Amino acid sequence: MTKKSFTYRILKKAGLNFSEEEYGRISFWGALKRALKGIRNAILLKYCMYSVILSPLNYRKIRPMIWRWIGCKVGKNVFIGYDVWMDFNNAHLIEIGDGAHITNRCLLLCHQRDLSNYYVGDDSTKLPYKKGKIVIGKNVMIGMGTLIMPGVKIGEGSIISAGSVVSSDIPSWSVASGRPAVVIKEIPKKS
Q1: How far does Cα 129 stand from its chain's mean position?
Q2: Residue 61 CB partners (closer than 8 Å, separation 6+)
Q3: Which pLDDT value is given to residue 25?
Q4: Between the CA of residue 69 and those of 37, 92, 108, what are the distances in Å?
Q5: Phi, psi (5° rounding) for residue 22?
Q6: Which pTM value belongs to this model?
Q7: Residue 24 confidence (pLDDT)
Q8: Residue 40 CA neighbour count, 13 Å, CB half
Q9: What is the C-alpha separation between 64 and 81, in angstroms, rounded?
Q10: Is the distance from CB of 24 to CB of 7 less than 8 angstroms?
Q11: Residues 6+ apart with CB under 8 A from 53
Q12: How far, in Å, CA of 151 to CA of 65, rounded?
């Protein structure tokens, strides 16, 4: 049995049920640093979501700039709509290509519980996380209310219809839709 960190033991005594995988080997200062960074990022994102002061600049200038500060790799001329959320503790796993357009109320998720060793009687809150990079190619259009799951790559020029759940890669120059999203059309070349 591995020795659990002081931080994990304190969280456990406080009645909080955190994943041992995530917090079992983290120092108190590491947890504090992570919490402070999370608070900073949450404040930045809250501004990003709801500010109307500079709304004409918000979508194409301010939000992409703030996402870069938080840790995402964001290309030029990217549009990030109102109420778009990202996995800000894993922002370094998000890459958005030039000219991409992410419409309102989308969610980019870079982590999820790893169910590969989950059995009857296990505590699901103690499952470890698996993380995956999200890559959104150049000139991709993501429709309103779309959920993008960890480890997904959306190829250049693709269009994801509103309300889709993208849980696997989408090839370049295609239209995908659904829950889970599947390719419904390939975008033709000009003749």
Answers
A1: 14
A2: none
A3: 64
A4: 11, 10, 17
A5: -85, -40
A6: 0.79
A7: 58
A8: 12
A9: 10
A10: no
A11: none
A12: 23
Encoded tokens for 169? 């890669």
Which residues of 87-158 form beta strands (DSSP E)?
94-96, 101-102, 107-108, 111-113, 129-131, 134-136, 141-142, 147-148, 153-154
Predicted confidence band of residue 126 (pLDDT cuts 50, 70, 90): confident
Other Cβ atoms within 10 Å of 45 Cβ, number = 19
- Interacting residues of 72 by C-beta distance below 8 A, sequence separation 6+: 86, 91, 92, 94, 95, 96
* Per-residue model confidence (pLDDT) at position 39: 83
The structural domains of the chain, with segments of one domain joined by +, span 56-186
What is the domain class of 56-186 according to CATH? mainly beta
Distances (CA, A) of 180 to 53, 105, 144, 163, 177: 37, 18, 15, 10, 8
Here the tokens at position 161 are 């219809």
